[in-house]
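Suppose you are handed a protein chain with no further information: no name, no annotation, nothing but its sequence. What can you learn? This example shows the usual starting point.
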Amino acid sequence: MAEAEVVGVPASLLSLDPQLQREFQDKVLRVRSGKGTKHEKLTPGVIYLGHIPRGLFEPQIQEYFSQFGTVTRLRLSRSKKTGGSKGYGFVEFESDEVAKIVADTMNNYLFCERLLKCEFMPPEKVHENLFRGSKKTFRKPSHPAVKRYNKKRTTQEKTRMTERLLKNEKQLRKRLAEKGIDYDFPGFAAQMPQKKKNVSNSNLNISVNSQDPTPVCTPTALERRKSQPAEDDEDEITIRLPPTSVKCTAQKTKKTTKLQKKIHPKKRK
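A reasonable first move is to predict its three-dimensional structure. Written in structure tokens, the prediction is:
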């Protein structure tokens, strides 16, 4: 493997070279047996794992890498919003020798149509809080802000919320005015529905000017108009129509004269 790296030829994949597979198994067995390291204390080793395929989470990763050695801690990076995997993580082995062997052999390993990236991390680059909370069972985020926004509120809660928003907006306008910033914006006050003015009964009896398109005619206004004297009677022209009885008699006389003319025509001289 060392000669291949010096020449620049990429090392063959673990799953395609049976000789490298046997060498790797021998190294792992040697480390597990602990020959020459019985009286020495094992130092843990951490590897960086990248290009993790989708569908692999903490239980699957720990089960897969435990065949190489004892996995003490595991950290898979997840999204805080969705809880999905970000595609990289960190695995800590009991022995740093096993971690180095895994990093050398599993790098660029074809796994679920992806090439895994494994790198051994030296102890000085491992942060002390790297595996903080790794032993806790992961829970999907509940999105409390979304639940709070979509919560069904009562009328009292709605009024409190609107009052709080208007109060904060008023304070903001005051702070801007104190700093000499002339900036006008509609804000929440423009979105509030305007209150309807209560019309009193006394205003209902007041008549509108006659020049308006729709003057108000109330009983009190009509009484006032009747009581007031009529002005400019000379200028007004009143046309009185005859009653219906007179019209009927006039029409009947016209019809009778026409019939008489037809019956008794005038003699020509």
